[in-house]
Specification:
Four Helix Bundle (Hemerythrin (Met), subunit A), 0% strand
Length: 118
């Protein structure tokens, strides 16, 4: 089982930033981060893009960016920001170009969290 501090050099979860944000309360962070598996924004974003519903896609990307930022998921936050910004500007092509990277970052976060909880 991995420890949260194992991610001190990681861009998947920025351990130092997370501990600063959560006042060093690792238990609170883990409780909130563990709920990420149930977060609907990634699925909602993909579904909205498939349906060409740009407004819903933007809201989902923006929400995913917020969750990723609050939980210090650095890579996911970075790419979700690019997708959100592109959709906010109605630049669907750029958003779509970033989706593979977003999916990879999302999967990396889920894998990292699973390793913490196993």
């Amino acid at each position: 089982m991995a420890e949260l501090s194992d991610f001190s050099e990681s861009t998947i979860i920025n351990y130092e930033e997370a501990m600063d944000r959560f006042g060093g309360n690792k238990e609170l962070y883990m409780r909130l981060a563990s709920k990420f598996a149930d977060d609907p924004h990634h699925a909602r974003l993909k579904e909205a893009l498939a349906d060409s519903d740009i407004e819903t896609a933007y809201r989902a990307a923006h929400s995913l960016k917020g969750v990723a930022g609050n939980l210090s998921f650095t890579d996911l936050y970075t790419v979700a920001t690019r997708v959100s910004d592109a959709l906010h500007s109605a630049d669907v092509a750029t958003a779509l170009q970033n989706m593979d990277e977003l999916d990879s970052a999302y999967d990396a976060v889920k894998d990292a969290l699973a390793s913490l909880n196993s």
